[in-house]
Automatic annotation (TrEMBL):
Belongs to the precorrin methyltransferase family. PANTHER family: COBALT-PRECORRIN-4 C(11)-METHYLTRANSFERASE, SIROHEME SYNTHASE-RELATED. One of its GO terms (biological process) is methylation. GO terms for molecular function: precorrin-4 C11-methyltransferase activity. CDD domains: Precorrin-4_C11-MT. The gene is cobM. The lineage of its organism: Bacteria, Bacillati, Actinomycetota, Actinomycetes, Mycobacteriales. Its EC number is 2.1.1.133. This is Precorrin-4 C(11)-methyltransferase.
Length: 249
């Protein structure tokens, strides 16, 4: 039997992989991460499936449910919002399953920042502007950031920077990034990306905080900062250049 850690995407029920949909439909046990997973996706669970909201459960309680399901010979669809590789708390669950000898697999999903970029209609790696993306967050009541991963340090690269789980600290984010990016650097906040209640805010580091407060955005949002958000006149990439040598195979 297998525990499947499934990326349930940013919110829209149809932004999941075919593999994820197939596993959900075949798993007699489903654990999902509260309101972050759409109800339409949970409807894919088979009739009679045990469907459990883990929002108020501790790690030990969640792992106990996974072990109980394995002992009963049941596959588990363990749904996490976005993609399991980013801020998902999959690592500590997988560590405990390893210790218990329980098989698991990871099914990738659409992360929130790519859904946000799609809503903004922007590529985050633009030729001659930025070819790197930094994915990070800010310290609040969650796990402390490692030394050297504060926004001022990360901002020195000038790369496109994406801050997860930080809309309620937008003043801090804008202040710390202004030091390296400047007050006129384009910034955007997308809340509930891909959902019917999506909110898209565009501005600069000097203006975005006021927009976030006016819109009442405090959570389920990503902050994106970088010149790519307003890039114009950039060179075409070499990928499709007529000057690039191509083979017939």
């Amino acid at each position: 039997m297998t525990v499947y850690f499934i990326g349930a995407g940013p919110g829209a029920a149809d932004l999941v992989t075919v593999r994820a949909q197939r596993i959900i439909a075949a798993s007699p046990v489903c654990l999902y991460a509260g309101s972050l997973v759409p109800a339409e996706l949970l409807a894919e669970c088979p009739e009679g499936a045990r469907v459990i909201d883990t929002a108020r459960l501790s790690l030990d309680e969640i792992v106990a449910l996974l072990l109980d399901a394995d002992a009963a010979g049941h596959d588990v669809a363990r749904l996490h919002s976005g993609d399991p590789s980013i801020f998902s708390a999959v690592a500590e669950q997988a560590r405990r399953l390893d210790a218990a000898g329980v098989a698991y697999a990871i099914v990738p999903g659409v992360p929130a920042f790519t859904a946000a970029a799609a809503s903004l209609g922007r590529e985050l790696t633009v030729p001659g502007v930025s070819q790197s993306i930094v994915l990070t967050r800010v310290s609040t009541l969650s796990t402390a950031m490692p030394e050297g991963e504060d926004l001022r340090s990360l901002g020195r690269s000038g790369a496109t920077l994406v801050v997860h789980l930080g809309a309620h600290r937008i003043d801090q984010i804008a202040l710390e990034l202004t030091e390296n990016y400047g007050p006129d650097c384009p910034a955007a906040v997308v809340a509930f990306a891909s959902r019917p209640d999506e909110i898209v805010l565009r501005g600069t580091l000097a203006t975005i905080a006021d927009q976030v407060k006016t819109a009442g955005v405090t959570k389920t949002a990503v902050v994106i900062v970088g010149k790519v958000l307003a890039a114009e006149g950039f060179p075409d990439s070499y990928l499709y250049s007529a000057a690039r040598e191509r083979t017939t195979h």
